[in-house]
Amino acid sequence: MTIPSTIVQPAAISFPRLVDLFDGRRGIRGTLEVEIREPDSASGTLDPAPTPLAAGPAVLDFISSNESLDRYGEIISARGWRLENYRRNPVFQNAHQYGDVIFTLGKALVTEVRGAEGPATAPYLYQRIQFAVDVNPMARIAYGLYRGKFLNAVSVGFIPLRWENPADPEKAGYRRKYLEQELLEVSAVGIPANPEALQLGLEAGAIEKADLRRLFDLIYREEFRSEMAAPNTDASASGGRSNEAQLLQLARALREILRRT
Questions:
Q1: What pLDDT was estimated at residue 127?
Q2: DSSP class of residue 78?
Q3: What is the pLDDT of residue 117?
Q4: Which residues of 80-103 are buried (b: 16+ CB within 10 A; e: fewer)?
Q5: Distance (Å, whole) CA 185 – CA 205
Q6: Cβ atoms within 10 A of the Cβ of 193, count?
Q7: Which of 44, 116, 139, 164 is least crowded, fewest Cβ atoms below 10 Å from its Cβ?
Q8: pLDDT in the model for residue 5
Q9: For residue 21, which of 29, 10, 11 has the smallest C-alpha distance?
Q10: Residue 121 CB coordination number (10 Å)
């Protein structure tokens, strides 16, 4: 039986979840659980067998959950992703922070919808991410935590373009389904400011103590101390304070774990 629904255009409704995305436009951020595997460099296919951290580029394949129901009772149609704008600047950030290069963890080498060849194939949003491990210690830690399965989600920022609201959400099994949406940003989530999570990654060999020390020293070097101590007076003050809070939270976690080990 077909569940009656109403297809809605953006101007017809306001979302309580709307936030400012990186370019100032209003959109939605949602967390997607991902399957993460190392790519087979020869064929471009997924290879479940891990390779040494130092061997080859720090590249991981991310397969987002396909059209599963999220905790808001919403579904994002994989076939509905519009990727042109994101591909112009395909950075992979930490927690949607754009105020400093330290938050840029890498870039997407590939972003595309796969598995959409026919109705019998479940589509998904696929990304191949290269982490900036050689220049950013935070990126190296993020790579190790994703590769070691200590992180298993990303957060996408998108602008809804077209969606449907079922007349009977209980029968339909969802509250809203996004039919078309423009991807603007993708971020790692849960890079732990939690000493226990970092400790687990360290004990398992997913990250190294030297990487934690490098990141701690980077955050607390003279340039960062002076920036964090200076009052914010410009239009980006709220974003600056958010960046500072992220850095200070992470620095406290790093100091705690370095003290323990």
A1: 96
A2: G
A3: 66
A4: bbebeebeeebbbbbbbbbbeebb
A5: 30
A6: 19
A7: 44
A8: 62
A9: 29
A10: 11
List all residues 6 or more positions away from 41 whose beta carbon is below 8 Å from its beta carbon: 56
Q: What sign does the CA torsion over 70, 74, 95, 15 have?
A: negative
Nearest to 154 by CA among 110, 188, 104, 124: 188
How many beta carbons lie within 10 A of that of residue 112, not counting itself?
14
pLDDT at 231: 43
User: Residue 12's CB: how many other CB atoms inside 10 A?
Assistant: 9
List, as own/partner pairs, every contact residues 225-230 make where C-beta atoms lie below 8 angstroms and the sequence separation is at least 24, other chains included: none
Q: Which residues contact residue 28 at a Cβ distance below 8 angstroms, ignoring those fewer than 6 apart?
A: 15, 17, 18, 19, 157, 158, 159, 160
What pTM did the predictor assign?
Answer: 0.82
Neighbour-count burial of 54, counting CB atoms closer than 10 A to its CB (0-12 exposed, 13-18 middle, 19+ buried)? exposed
Burial of 226 (0-12, 13-18, 19+ CB in 10 A): exposed
Handedness of CA 165, 166, 170, 176 (dihedral sign): negative
Within the chain, which residues score under 70 in pLDDT? Answer: 1-15, 40-56, 116-120, 222-242
Task: Indicate the angle between helix axes 137-147 and 209-220, nearest 10 degrees.
Answer: 140
Task: List C-alpha distances in Å: 21 to 2, 17, 170.
Answer: 35, 12, 31
SS3 170: helix
pLDDT digits (tens, 9 = 90+) for 8-51: 655 545 667 899 998 889 999 988 889 999 886 544 554 444 44
